[in-house]
Write a structure and sequence with these properties.
The complex is a heterodimer of chains A (313) and B (276). By secondary structure, chain A is mainly alpha-helical. Helix content of chain A is 73%, strand content 1%. In chain A, a hairpin with a 4-residue loop joins strand 1 and strand 2. By secondary structure, chain B is mainly α. In chain B, helix 3 packs across helix 9 and helix 5 crosses helix 6.
Amino acid sequence: MKRTGRLLDLGVGVLLGGLALFVGGVFPLLTLAGLVKDAWPAIEKFGLTFFVTTTWDPVREVFGALPAITGTLLTTALSALIAFPISLGIAIFITELSPRILRPVWTTAVELLGTIPSIIYGMWGLFVIAPLMANHVEPFLQETLGRLPLVGALFAGPPLGIDVLTASFILSIMIIPYMATVIKDAFEMVPDAIKEASYGLGATQWETVVGAVIPTAFPGIVAGFILGVGRALGETMAVAFLTGNVHQIPKSLLEPLTTITVAIANEFTEADTDVYLGALFYLALVLFLVSFLLMYVAKEVVFLRIRKRFEGR
Amino acid sequence: MRRRRVINVLMLSLAGLAALYGLVFLIWILVDVAVRGFQALHLDLFLQDPVPPGMEGGGLKHAFIGHAIITGLAALLGIPIGIGAGIFFAEYGRTRPWARMLRSVVDVMTSIPSIVVGTLVYALMVQPVGHFMGIAGSVALALLMLPVIAITTDEVLRMVPDHLREAAFALGAHKVDVLRVTLHAARRGILTGVLLGIARISGETAPLLFTSFNNAFTELDPTKPMASLTVTIFQYATGPYDEWHAQAWAASFILTFTTLLFFILAKWGIQRNGKT
């Protein structure tokens, strides 16, 4: 009896350990190995020039990823710029302004925004926002900001609604929930004593937010920002409808573009040669490595710091 | 002082506006999906296969069935493995440095871009076999939900007080019996993790594009290419026919509200769990 019990214990332990090893070790390594293997024809042929050349020509089998990488960085940066202040505002609203009873309602609303499938964002963007952009917003921007020197060049070109601006805008709505949730959680961890000390010194509510809450929760704000950026980098379907998948570096906000994810989604099933498919796998590999590193930094470095700050007391 | 008060009101109003901005888009999207989807909703949508493009009528039976099969198989594959890994991190791994390292990798893998998983499963399954398969889509979705379920299970088990484990051990229980005790205490939380995992994968499109691919007919064999709601929405929304667009909205309506339902159920589970 005792023996079988011990054997069972050992068996279950080994089994569970195997599963943990699979999820935490085999899965990521397999991802790396699988992507490198299928990307190899392209890695061998283009090496690091892949990242600095702009030609994307399936017929001649010449592939350069600079337009796709630029597109990803551009839409990610723009969407993060739009989403960050909004998310910060939402977090301040929920933790400082809203009555305590209503807080769960707003929190759930934010989370629902993050639960809507990304393809729904994409389709809504295509049928509702893109026409609105093309017919109203973009002509208006051209009439106003487009007339200014320097800034005007950003709004050059025909307003079609399928461009950098629309894609970034949809992306920004998608990432708000991710940023806002983490920032809100960080704000909630700020001890009341710190806020009370600030009020005690005669600070207004806003001065307390800026002087006490934000500095204390700063690592959490950074983590939320990085999480949103990571989400934007890897997002496919929300932007798949809205970029036009044109391999060019956009010169204005109203030009079509492509991103790493959109190129993969649109061209994967068309890629008929090893090098073409390899180029798409090469893109996937870059995306995997960049988002893995980014998330690692966000979760390990930043969360560790915030944990130390509050649990060390 | 007056200036400080003005700044205070101004900035706090801006924060309120930001919240309003988020709320406006949430309602705008949901209302658009509900209204446009509801208009196109018809019983045939669930009972009929598609008709040739551009013709009136027909439905998305093939996509509903395919979606259920792909997601169901993914859940069958992903839930036991994810929960098992989570149990290990909580019950065995807390004192082992290598297990803690694995856990932080799993934590990072929760945000792996879903399209990367799609390309991976293409390389591992579709390419060697030579054609797209429904089951490959399930594997891709299962891989996506694994880290989510593992992390939630781990977090829930960690909340089970240690004296429960100590009490069981003191009664002479084996580790396996102790696991039974802690799992029982954490069951609702684990269910929440499962629901969150399903909510996460049920709306995914990118991992299915080159794994389960698409099919114009109802297909029950998971070793064949299989239609899914999301890939069909992608195909129909980018297509040129008004009839397709209407059906894409109807499918979006069903998909969105089912996903939200799963999420709300999970959320409700968390709150109940917090109370007990």
